[in-house]
Amino acid sequence: MKVAKFLCAAALCCAMAATSFAGEPNPMVSKSIATIEDQMGSLPDITGQERIGVLVITLSNPYWVTMKERYGEWAKEMGISVEVMAAPTEKDLKSQLNTLEAMVAKKYDGIIVTPMDPFNLIPGIVKADEKGIPVVCSGPEVSRDGLKQAGAVMDGWITATFKDQGRLCAEDMAEKLPSGSEVAIIEGIPGAGQSKARREGASEGFEKAGLKLVAVEAGNWDRNRAYDITTNLVKAHPQLKGIYCANDVMALAAVDALEVAGIEGVTVYGTDFIPEAAEAIKSGRLAGSTTFSQAAWTRGTLVYTLKLIKKDEDLPEKLSVPITLVNGENIGQFQGWK
């Protein structure tokens, strides 16, 4: 499908929309919004009767709490109904599927899903297809082979290059460490698409930079588990100089573990740029993180879904959300980041 080109007036509209809910938006947020909408065109005509269901991973993680808030802010701005639901924990695959199936029964005009792993939501997507409800995958991808085998169709994809998140952190860490330094990775749930991609990106980045990867451990996105892993890592590898974590919750736990153990000189990076991580970067406790604008991501996903509901034939199959590295040198540029 061809990409509908986006005019300057539409870019101005999206910047104004960002201002309306965000006060003084960071210029990079407005740029991210424009970059996403340039791939698909601007907000379609809406009636205000549109109902969209959004399924995220879990509201026990502050990252997803913020995503829920951003969806709500844009829903109010657009004058549509958006309901955000989630599973109790990061690992409750069955509960997330049950939630999706309940959402299908509510007969939303469109549904947005962020899967815990590539396969757990496929039965629910099949049911949505049967009812003619368009489904958009936002974030880590549902397995395309799994969808094909189930006879299901994903109507659209919104994603970022998660592999680059790991790579950017590894490259930035390498600039701070001598060649040959020992480093480790704490990934999320091994089967999760974004965890796998971040791990691979970091691993490749370390190898290219000449750093020695001595351990890869599954933190399962969990703060306590990451804390224990870090405690054990520094005992097993006393020369460890760097740790990349696949989310900020685990990275902050790693920092806590190092501080409690009284160990200095270990550089830690995370991913997601949650508010607590931003403060840790400012204070120097955390070396850096990677991020994309959650305001831009959620707005782009809602606009894309609305265009599907309106049967826009010019939509691309997939949208890409730009990512960026945050560290102690550029943290000042992220004032007002959303």
Structure at a glance:
With about 350 residues, the chain is of the alpha/beta class. It has helices at about 10-20, 25-35, 60-80, 95-105, 120-130, 145-150, 160-175, 195-210, 225-235, 250-260, 275-285, 295-310; strands spanning about 50-60, 80-85, 110-115, 135-140, 155-160, 180-185, 210-220, 240-245, 265-270, 290, 320, 325. The chain is about 45% helix and about 20% strand.
CATH class of the largest domain: Alpha Beta
Integer-rounded radius of gyration = 20 Å
CATH superfamily annotation of the largest domain = Response regulator
Distance between the termini: 31 Å
- From the coordinates shown, what is the CATH architecture of the largest domain? 3-Layer(aba) Sandwich
CATH topology of the largest domain: Rossmann fold
General description of the model:
- Mean pLDDT is 92; it is low at 1-22.
- The chain has a six-stranded parallel beta sheet, sandwiched between helices. Strands 7-6-8-9 form a four-stranded parallel beta sheet, sandwiched between helices.
- The longest helix is centred in the N-terminal third of the chain and has 17 residues, at 62-78.
- It folds into two domains: 8-160 and 293-321, Rossmann fold (3-Layer(aba) Sandwich); 162-291, Response regulator (Rossmann fold), CATH 3.40.50.
- With 338 residues, it is α/β, with parallel strands linked by helices.
- Helix 2 (27-37) runs parallel beside helix 12 (294-309), helix 3 crosses helix 12 (294-309) and helix 7 packs parallel to helix 8 (193-209).
- Helices cover 46% and strands 18% of the residues.
- The chain has twelve helices and twelve strands.
- Helix 6 (144-150) links the parallel strand 4 and strand 5.
- The chain has helices spanning 8-22, 27-37, 62-78, 93-105, 122-130, 144-150, 162-176, 193-209, 223-236, 248-261, 275-283, 294-309; strands at 51-58, 81-87, 110-113, 135-138, 156-159, 182-187, 212-218, 240-245, 267-269, 288-291, 318-320, 324-327.
